[in-house]
Amino acid sequence: MIDAATIFAIATRAIKANKMRSILTSLGIIIGVAAVIVMLSVGHGAQTSIQNEMKTMGSNLIIIRSGVATSSGARSGHGSKPTMKKSDGDAIQEKIEAIKLAAPVLEETTQIVYGNANWSTGVTGTDRRMFEIKEWNLSYGRMFSSTDVRSAAKVAILGQTVVNELFGDVDPLGKTIRIKGIPFQVIGVLIPRGQSGNGMDQDDVVYIPITTAQKKVMGISFPDQVKMIMLQAIDSQSTYTAQEEIRELLRQRHNLGINKDDDFVIRNLTQMMEMMESSTKVMTILLGSIASISLLVGGIGIMNIMLVSVTERTREIGIRMAIGAKAWDIRWQFLSESLVLSLIGGLVGVVLGLVGSYLVGILSSLPTKVSLIYVLLPFSFSGMVGLFFGFYPAYKASLLNPINALRYE
Amino acid sequence: MSLIELKHITKSYPLEDTQLKILKGINLNIEKGDFVAIMGPSGSGKSTLMNILGCLDKPTSGTYVLDGQRVENLSADELAEIRNKKIGFVFQGFNLLSRTSALENVELPMVYANVPAAQREERAQKALAKVGLKERMNHMPNQLSGGQQQRVAIARAVVNEAPIIFADEPTGNLDTKMSVEIMNLFTKLNEDLGRTIILVTHEDDIAHYAKRIIRIVDGEIHSDERNEK
After folding, report:
1. What distance in Å separates the CA atoms of residue B60 and residue A52, rounded to the nearest whole number?
2. Which of these, A33, A14, A34, A32, lies nearest to A22 by C-alpha position?
3. Chain B residue closest to A408 (CA)?
4. Cβ–Cβ of A315/B95 closer than 8 Å?
5. How high is the ipTM of this complex?
6. What domains does chain B contain, in order, with CATH numbers?
7. Which among A198, A246, A196, A161 is positioned nearest to A57, based on CA atoms?
8. The domain containing residue A17 runs over which residues?
């Protein structure tokens, strides 16, 4: 068999001899590879943004809300019948080993005022465990102390958006804002987190101690009432396994008999996120496979041109055979030609795909993310397409009879 | 032992329900260093004989010993190797690769013999110098005259040191002056380098350059005589 360098020299010569045709043939592969890369980067981008959202929400999350209230047969939504207490959360954190932290949440959207500026935002009563779960640190100022919580101190921690809306350029630390007319002293400002995956401004928040919320700001129907409890499990597996334990503990604490339904709802956010993640994965695969079809069509284009090329060059094949080319020499010659065509197409396609993903990323709201594997995959696929669709024409060429081939006009 | 020994070579093609017999039992020995012309009217089977001698085709029956090796039953790839090592072809239509320089055309047999690239170029240059085309080795076939193209083909036929050169109507597309040039080149190859030359032609004055003239009629050898110059 003849050496690879010579084979590829012969292939490139043949490709250069028919420039226009070679470009058009490669175009199929170029478009295919570029499309696969753009599609995969869109899918990959969606996946990454979901993962980021999971991170800001806190990992391994379980949320417990109050149950459903029924009034004259009409069922209200979750949390409409308040049943949860802060002490429920504390008990869960203490008794169930799989649960690391339990943060109470009591929230309400209300108007807040500083000087003559005012702003409507969500005010959340909680304690420092909330920030541990969300892995959210202060940009400056201080965190709620245990004294703040015990004494129901009128102190507030603000998100960056609220700071911007109320204070502008003024340093908010130590200033007094009014929530429902009650004065609160600003003690800290959170590090900005930007938008969440579904477009919510995560920095448009005010946090106050849970006790303050319960006793002074929000109306509650029984002592220690909370809207929900946010739990963090020790790992993602525990978010599934701990659910039954939590349920039993809460039923016991709420004195629910065997015949009674749960008066609370346990939601596993890890499960939800994993489902969202797997659905974007499916979307990525789907987009990628649709784009791969154009790559396949490109391959058929190569096969078509190679068949034409073999027929056109029958005489050349005859000469080569007469001079001593074996079947594999002829096969390699045409195979390497389709391989070079598809790899050049693949290379240009990779460049175009990278530019395309970049443009989609800035021109549309779709987040795109390019990773090495999603570039190498379509590129090597283009090589395989070249080999696969080049094989039949090459095989056909190698079967020619030298006498007939030499006589071919 | 002769360079070429044919015994009872026949070639027939199926034609409807009968067999069309092209060669009807050819017995032929050709010695090393001979210069043989094979003549015959068209349809006599001389081209078929040429194809079998040149290992481009296989006989239906009979035995063919080439340089001590039985070749009638070899596979296509084995025949390709024999052609590459032992035979050089010169065709009526030159059969050079288009868009490929004279030098690269001459290198081609060595490409398939796995000669290293540097050595290929050196040997091809020498072969082209021998046929008087040293200055034109980078020309493409369409930049060369018919006679020049045929000389490139001859250089290609000798570059692999093949002992036998088959020439199928090598002057068929050339004018008289060029024909004489080409035939003189063959004579030189035969006399100076001892190459065995087998020439197929239908022109008497071309055949007369050979030392031995074989006439084929109807698939059989009609006459076989030494040529008195």
Report:
1. 77
2. A14
3. B95
4. yes
5. 0.94
6. 32-58+76-226 (3.40.50.300)
7. A196
8. 4-53+275-407
A11 inside domain: yes
Domain count within chain A: 2
Closest residue in chain B to residue A400, using alpha carbons only: B76
Statement to judge: residues A94 and A126 lie in one domain: yes
Query: CA of B83, closest CA in chain A: separation in Å?
Result: 6
Q: Is B45 left (phi over 0), alpha (psi -120 to 50) or beta?
A: left
CA neighbours within 13 Å on the CB side: how many for A301? 22
Q: Retrieve residue A280's tokens.
A: 């974007």
Q: Do A316 and B117 touch (CB under 8 A)?
A: no
Task: Report yes or no: A357 and A38 within 8 Å, Cβ to Cβ.
Answer: yes
Answer for the pair A125, A209: CB distance below 8 angstroms, yes or no. yes
> Sign of dihedral through CA atoms B141, B146, B148, B154?
positive
Hunting for tokens 């002057």 — which residue is that? Answer: B171
Verify that A188 and A311 share a domain, yes or no: no
Q: From chain A, pick out residues whose CB is under 8 angstroms from the CB of B56.
A: 322, 402-403, 406
Q: B157 contacts in A (CB within 8 Å)? A: none
Is A324 in Cβ contact with B113 (below 8 Å)? Answer: yes
- In chain A, residues with a C-beta closer than 8 Å to the C-beta of B99 are 13, 17
Q: What is the pLDDT of residues A294-303, one digit of tens each?
A: 989 999 999 9
Q: For the range A16-23, what are the long-range contacts, defined as Cβ-Cβ under 8 Å and sequence gap of 24 or more?
A: A17/B99, A18/A309, A21/A305, A22/A341
Q: Which two tokens stand for residue B90?
A: 């010169």
Residues A238, A363 within the same domain: no
Asked whether residue A262 is domain-assigned, the answer is: no
CA distance A202 to B190: 95
Which residue's structure tokens are 């806190």? A58
Q: Are residues A121 and A234 in the same domain?
A: yes
Q: What is the pLDDT along chain B (229 residues), one digit of tens a residue?
A: 789 999 999 999 888 888 889 999 999 999 999 999 999 988 888 989 999 999 999 999 999 999 999 999 999 999 999 999 999 999 988 999 988 999 999 999 999 999 998 899 999 999 999 999 999 999 999 999 999 999 999 999 999 999 999 999 999 889 999 999 999 999 999 999 999 999 999 889 999 999 999 999 999 999 999 987 6
